[in-house]
Structure formats: structure tokens, C-alpha cells
Amino acid sequence: MNKLGITQAALAKECYVVRQTIHYIENNNYDPTLEFTFIIYKALNSLFDEGYTYG
Fold this sequence. Notes:
mainly alpha, globular
């Protein structure tokens, strides 16, 4: 997640999951449900709106 300017912990907090869940998704060890995918999407948009930068 560092490429996006956020940490696994920050994304996990926004998604109400533990950091390890984000780690497993990043490493293709866990396939999130469609519902959880939307939660991640909404959290990422929220984080970017708060001032996180890409790049």
C-alpha cells in the first residue's frame, strides 16, 4: 500500500478489519467477497479525499 501513500494499518482501520487481512489480500492469499471489495473501494476513496497522495 505504500505506493498509494497509505499503510496497511490505516486501510485496515478504515475497513474495520485487522492489518493481516489487508496483507493477505495484497499477497493473493485471500479473495475478498464482493461486499468487502466495495468496503475497500469506499475506504480508499475516503482516504484519498482526506489528503493522501498518489505517487
